[in-house]
Amino acid sequence: MSNGDAWFFIGLGLVLAVPFPFALIMLVRTHARRRTWTHVTGTVTSVRTKRRNDGETRTTVHYRYTDALGQQRSGTDTPWFRAPSRKSDIAVVYDPDNPDRSEAASTTWLNVLFPITVVLLALGVWSLVAGLQSLTQ
């Protein structure tokens, strides 16, 4: 392998490995919220899908829930995959110190995103090691 190829593999390895720390931080923060925030059942009040000028669509789910003091609260979520239907129940977590701060408790995005970033990390480490070994020979 030439030095140019080795540097390519090193650069590729770094590019592939970079998303992993960010995904790990998101995972840790999400699990911390799931552990410390209050879990309730919310009701979907509306589901709106808008088509943007570039042809992509964006779905926003509006929901409402009742906090521990009996106060009605509302929130929004942008699902990555299948949106729930109107009037359906969804799992919601909210910050007990600031009950207006909430999120849908779906972890589908983590179940897809994190394994992908682990695979990218493995490929990145392999590429980085291959490039470094080539340079040291």
TrEMBL record:
This is DUF3592 domain-containing protein. It comes from Saccharopolyspora flava. Residues 40-103 form the DUF3592 domain. It comes from the Bacteria. InterPro entries: DUF3592. The chain crosses the membrane at residues 6-28, 109-129. Keywords: Membrane, Transmembrane, Transmembrane helix. The keyword Transmembrane helix applies. It holds the Pfam family DUF3592.
